[in-house]
Amino acid sequence: MPETQSGKLSNTTTKEYQSSTLQSRDSFRLLRLYPQTPSADIKCSLKEVNIADKRGYGAVSYVWGVPNLTRKIYCGNAYIGVTEHIHALLRRVCNSSRDVYIWIDAICINQKDLTERSTQVLLMRKIFSDAGQILIWLGIDPGPAAPAFQIISDFNVLCDKAPKGAFRDNNHERLQSAEDLHAFVQGSNGRSIANLFQHDWFHRTWTFQEAFSARPRAALVLYGDYDIEYEELSVFAVYMCSLAIQGSLQTHRARMGVNHVVKIKQYANSENTLLGLLKITHARRATDARDKIYGLASLVDPKELPYPPSYEIDDHTLFRDQAVHMIKRAGNLRLLESCIFEDTVAAGLPSWAPSWAPTDTLVTAFHHEHEPFCPGPAVDPTRTPRVDGDILKVYGAVVDAIRKLGCKMELSDFESNTTSFADHENVIELLLDRESKELRDLATAYGSPEMRELARAQTLMGGRNRDVSRADADAAIKVRNHRRVSESNGGGASFGDYSVNDRAWNDFNEVAYQLMHAADGRRLCLTKSGRLGWVPLTSEEGDAISVLSGSQAAIVLRHQEDNRYQVIGGSYIHGIMDGEALKEPGQDDQLGFLQLV
């Protein structure tokens, strides 16, 4: 395949490089950097290769930022405009004695050619998984994030040398005391780590796909003159989440950055669906909203898309067509749990078609393939969802309504440069504990005071333990231990007073984890029938609670007219998640087709 050769040029070259059309849909370009001294102009060539070719190269994962093409590199008798950000990376990877081959999208994809951009989308996973090394480029100046590289390296050394009595997670030994771990994210250490995980790279859709595709230990994080293996950073994030100490970081954004890294580690070796990946990346950003789907396309079966990626289709059309395709292909309504009412309305979509555009609202799914919930009628081929224009006809029933709502508490509002997010979490958890007790006293559906307390505890945990098994009678003990540790910490006691092998400490971590996940994007509620639950933040008193065939969550609906409803979002209503509502007298008569608009 052709290669554009570099010649000797001065930096006064005025002709801009023009990419030739790729000869095959299975081809991509590699950038060849010629040997050069640190002060010389960067000279290069571009070579077209087939995706099936095995060639040693590195792939670059980075955030574009503001596309000001203020620098030049020289290719043949022309120049390629690049940003200062990219120029600094190329300067760093150039070698004085040998050629270097790398793939970087801003140069190797003709960004002006919509057809080429569309076809290259499906090659992304192969490009990154075949790369000899992935360079995660965070930028020129790490600033206050610089100490984090040594902190994380030291932390991993300590984990490797942990006492033999420590329990294990992901084949790494853990330290004995929560205080040992907590100390790593306090004071200036915590601020440095927070600055690192707040970086845009940890919050973008494309970078998820790129890190997801990397082979083990093949990725290196570069930030100015600092570097660390991505695997080390990933292990550190897993430790933080497993002991719930990521809350010690100062901002919600830093905490989310840690969670994003953990999600990649959790899902990288699994069989994933597009809907599953869209859910776990919903809070990630993309400059082009279409990339919320296209940035994941190479990770799943192409048949999961309604048509091949095309940047000639607008995001509104893509999101609606994707929803229709998912419903028809799966024959179920699992995507309704991902609907965020205010986002679908803002996007001008039917309320049943999730907008995957970047959002500040993160909604964690209540359903799971392990012991799934099934609140609605059994799936029947004669009652599958039907799309008629902008109307989705679904089989099910309205079984309850919201009587009373808890307070709105959006975690992203709790930001501070001086106080740890854990302190805010502790306040939120105690407020939810108190609020749930007030609602519990009105929850007549559960009978005795003991059963009401158990229902409250299981509701706070979203009906599940941290290992995704169903929350059982132990939930009440776990919630009591959580409150005991929370109150002792707030009263001046130290988390270090608890061993990682202490039942109270483990219960505190588990309930804190489940509670904050259930509370993200939701608020507590009491229904007219006296049940407790979690419903979307935008729910209103009087909104209907429905159970639909093919949905693993109860769905909050808002009545419009006749038999038409808007979808507000997925919910957990304790006591109906296994079809109990349909077993009550008269409820069978309510089953029928509802129209979602």
Write the layout of secondary structure elements.
Elements lengths: L26 E7 L9 E8 L7 E5 L8 E5 L2 E5 L1 H10 L6 E4 L1 H4 L5 H7 L3 H7 L2 E7 L7 H14 L7 E2 L2 E2 L4 H5 L4 H11 L7 H9 L5 E5 L2 E4 H13 L9 H16 L6 H7 L10 H4 L20 H16 L10 H6 L39 E3 L2 E15 L15 H20 L8 H12 L14 H16 L12 H17 L2 E6 L4 E5 L7 E5 L5 E8 L2 E10 L18 E5 L1
Parallel strand pairs: 2-4, 3-6, 3-7, 7-10, 18-19
Antiparallel strand pairs: 1-2, 1-6, 4-5, 8-9, 10-11, 12-13, 13-14, 13-16, 13-19, 14-15, 15-18, 16-17, 17-18
Describe the overall structure:
The structure is a single chain. By secondary structure, this protein is an alpha+beta fold. Among the domains are: 27-112, no CATH class; 314-410 and 521-597, no CATH class. It has helices at residues 84-93, 105-108, 114-120, 124-130, 147-160, 178-182, 187-197, 205-213, 230-242, 252-267, 274-280, 291-294, 315-330, 341-346, 421-440, 449-460, 475-490, 503-519, and strands at 27-33, 43-50, 58-62, 71-75, 78-82, 100-103, 133-139, 168-169, 172-173, 219-223, 226-229, 386-388, 391-405, 522-527, 532-536, 544-548, 554-561, 564-573, 592-596. The protein has a nine-stranded mixed sheet with strand order 5-4-2-1-6-3-7-10-11, with helices on both faces. Strands 12, 13, 14, 15, 16, 17, 18 and 19 form an eight-stranded mixed sheet that branches. It has a two-stranded antiparallel sheet with strand order 8-9. Helix 17 (475-490) crosses helix 18 (503-519). Residues 5-10, 162-178, 413-421 and 491-495 have low confidence and may be disordered.
